[in-house]
Amino acid sequence: MDETQGTKLPVIVIFAPTASGKTALTKELFAPGGSHFILNAEIISADSQAVYKGMDIGTAKPEPELRKILPHHLIDILTPDQQYNVSDFVNDADCACRDIYARGKTPVVCGGTGFYIRNFLYGVAPTPVSDPVLREKLKARIATEGNAELYKELQEIDPVSAVKIHPNDAYRICRALEVYYLSGKTRSEFAIKPGLRPQYDFTFIVLEPPRDLLYERINQRVDQMIEQGLEDEIKSLLKSGYTKDSPGFKAIGYHEWFEYPDRLQAIEAIKHNSRKYAKKQFILIRNISGSKIVKYEGKPEQINDINLYLKSLYSATSFSLK
Questions:
Q1: 202 forms bridges with which residues in the sheet?
Q2: Beta-carbon neighbour count of residue 179 at 10 Å?
Q3: Of 28, 68, 205, 304, which alpha carbon lies 20 to 30 A from 160's?
Q4: Which residue in 253, 300, 282 sits closest to 50, CA to CA?
Q5: What confidence tens digit (pLDDT) does each residue in 165-181 have?
């Protein structure tokens, strides 16, 4: 992509909460042999936890067979003890988009992490560069005072950011406090520039299942994860040297096992947190310019409607917008 010549890279962005059927949809639309195949494409995963190796069941990664015929990027790129943030995602997604486009295919950013998708569409707010000395001081405070104490401090300083951060997410708590102490401004005051990023020509689709159906599917998904061996997966990761404080274990489906000693309580907490998370993600992608909202249940006629919508925008024989 040559931005100096004003070339806009076409990219399809699909937001869908967990258990809504997005993997099945991308298989139908973009995998060779799919019944509604429309474009030669590759998927860029917008899932904040699918980046971690070994965390397969709890993150419901697309099956390896699908990934062989329909390449997926930003899956299994880190170990659970490594930190990954929204800036990393946007940078990596940009690189993947350029690479996919250069090879004559269509980049499709797809996932359920609304924070990642919103920042990919609008860009990351220009917060201050991290200060190593201050960061270490905050990490030392976390170690001695605990997450709860610094989270309370963040709630007083920047309640807007605190709402978006899990009380156990030590990294994001420290980063939000760091931004404030470096600049005197809360992280929420660093506004993203209005308007979608100009280097892309976005086609943005939001899959919105009926809430009752979505919650039922989430509960079924969690039960399926337990049957597939989620507990054994966690035990294996712990044996490999990762701990409850590893960034990967902050994910829903993992941290609950350390918070609830009772197995049934942990499972119910995973279901509750997953439903709550899905609701929160919709809030993050509201009112985005040009978005197409699809009341989606995974029915064949709905897949066909999305197929026709994309056909109206994209040439069937090329990776360029019409």
A1: 11
A2: 23
A3: 205
A4: 253
A5: 888 888 889 989 998 99
Concatenated DSSP letters for 152-212? HHHHHH-HHHHHHS-TT-HHHHHHHHHHHHHHSS-GGGSPPPSS--TTEEEEEEEE---HH
Question: Residue 184: what residue type?
Answer: G
Nearest to 164 by CA among 151, 150, 179, 149: 151
Indicate the helix (H) or strand (E) that contains 28: helix 22-30
Here the tokens at position 110 are 């797809």
Q: How far is CA 165 from CA 108, 175, 244, 284, in A?
A: 27, 11, 18, 13
**Residue that the structure tokens 């007083």 belong to:** 156
What digits encode the pLDDT tens for the residues 209-250? Answer: 999 999 999 999 999 999 999 999 999 999 999 999 999 999
Its pTM stands at 0.82
